Amino acid sequence: MPISFPGPARTLWGLLAGLALALPAAQGQSPVWPARPIKLMVPFPPGGSTDTIGRLLAGELGQSLGQSVVVENKAGANGGIGTDQVAKLPADGYSLLLSGIGSNATNYSLQRNTPYKDAAFRHVALLATGPSVLVVNPQFAARTVADLVRMAKERPGAYAHASAGNGSSGHLALELFKQTHGLQITHVPYKGNAQAITDVMAGQVPIMALNNDTALAYVRAGRLRALAVTSLARNPAFPQVPTMAESGIPGFDVVSWFGLSVPAGTPDAVISRLADATAQALQAPKLRQYLEGTGFVVASGTPGQFSDFVSAEIAKWQAVIQRAGITAD
């Protein structure tokens, strides 16, 4: 025989039953983060340094957070296509971006209609920085930065420098160098580093600035001669190479960088845990050895410090780019 309840008891029973059903649903709507796999966007093709760093970072973050971190590559527009996609995703902690100098600093000035702005992101952690290396053909007459400045001033327009393309990091580093000294050195843009490096080694174009990881093997083999690194401090991978500051340009500081960023609106608790997990990841031997072995300097700091760093990078490169009238290819 079914059990019946008087009216008030029946009402109370119904409320209790409804609450019992609602609790799991409410808990399901707000699970402890992370409750499922996380996606890390690497806005460049597979195979390069950026991709390698992203994959090593993803593995370490996955171990720390207890969820798999899956890398997705979406290249194009100097990192802009993948970066724009992350800017438009939910700010729930499940979409991360491997941010960098191109996609999150120089693109804003190089591209007329960047579909995203810096306000679309919260910046979690600076991972690593690496200088450009000012290199020349081994037979080129300039043995120091001072030699190069003197020669360029004596013969304005007589020398040329190669780059991987308009707006590339090497192009911008040399533009700042030229602006600092008022030098006239002709820019010769290539479609990528490969042919540019070949022509510098052959003496067709004698001067170039390369990212530390690209320059390292050529400098060690003597196929290119390094005049200076563009970071404030000497780079451990190039211990004998002076800085620009040591070469007579005080305060000259140009570095490429990688960071971890997320869509704006991501909760503070998620930001804090991601920052802690990233700091832990940067101590992992495999990631640290890769970074240091290719000339990067492992970074540290708070989300606020990284945000200030990004703002300063945007302002610095905006001034250089506007002064030189540079646009992306």
TrEMBL record:
Protein's UniProt keywords contain Hydrolase: no
Keywords, in A-Z order: Signal
Membrane-crossing residue ranges in chain numbering: none
SUPFAM superfamilies per record: Periplasmic binding protein-like II
Gene3D superfamilies per UniProt: Bordetella uptake gene, domain 1 (3.40.190.150), Periplasmic binding protein-like II (3.40.190.10)
Signal peptide: 1-22
Protein family membership: Belongs to the UPF0065 (bug) family.
Protein name: Tripartite tricarboxylate transporter substrate binding protein
